[in-house]
Amino acid sequence: CVLPETGGEECFFYLWKRDFSCPADCPEKIKSGSDRMGFSKKTYIYKVKLFVMLSRDLTATVIKTFFEELGDVRDGKRYENVANPFSGLYMPYFHQEREWFFKAEVKEITALLADDPIAKLEMLTELLYQDVRRLTDAEIQGVMFRKIIELHEVIDTRSMEFSIERANRTEELKKLLES
After folding, report:
1. b/e string for 154-173 if b means 16 or more Cβ within 10 A?
2. Does the pLDDT of residue 24 top 80, yes or no?
3. What is the CA radius of gyration of the chain?
């Protein structure tokens, strides 16, 4: 449910439970000014705004940490697996092994990340790009570059923002596939 008083933010129950459902009587509880836990209407609004703010901060921190770790692996400062140095980043951030992303179709990948912010899909495409660049098998590289291009198209469709970096990366990959 959506609270008009909060500028369109979802209600506290929805955000707190993260189960994509809201009790049917939630709006009535808010209108009446309290609920079974004794929260007032102002408390709900405050908690919603606080939760949204903390969620954004957490997302920004995760993105920053991810790109720092990706840079460390790319620059050779961190090795967990000498054969596949990037493999250690897949499970903590995307909850699947590296091989799964190499074998999975784009539909499966987007379904896995459907409930996550679009930034997570962008993080994955960058990880895949860095990982695939170091491969020597041209056939696997071609398949993965096509997959990355498809993922960029999904991001472009879902995202509310245009990224010149993403557009340039897509063009770079298309040129690599043509050569």
Report:
1. bbeeeeeeeeeebeebbeeb
2. no
3. 21
Token code pair at residue 162: 């245009």
Beta-carbon neighbour count of residue 64 at 10 Å?
10
Contacts by 138-143, CB closer than 8 A, 24 or more apart: 140/102, 141/176, 142/177
Backbone φ and ψ for 2, nearest 5 degrees, come out as -120, 135
The answer, as to whether pTM is greater than 0.70, is no
DSSP string covering 45-95? HHHHHHHHHHHHHHHHHHHHHHHHHHHHHHTTS--S-SS-GGGGGHHHHHS
Q: Which residue carries 């050779």 as its tokens?
A: 76
pLDDT in tens, 80-123: 666 788 888 999 889 999 999 999 999 999 999 888 878 899 99
40: how many CB neighbours lie within 10 A of its CB?
Answer: 12
Strand (E) or helix (H) holding 147: helix 138-158
- Amino acid (one-letter) located at 156: D
Question: What's the rounded mean pLDDT across residues 113-137?
Answer: 90
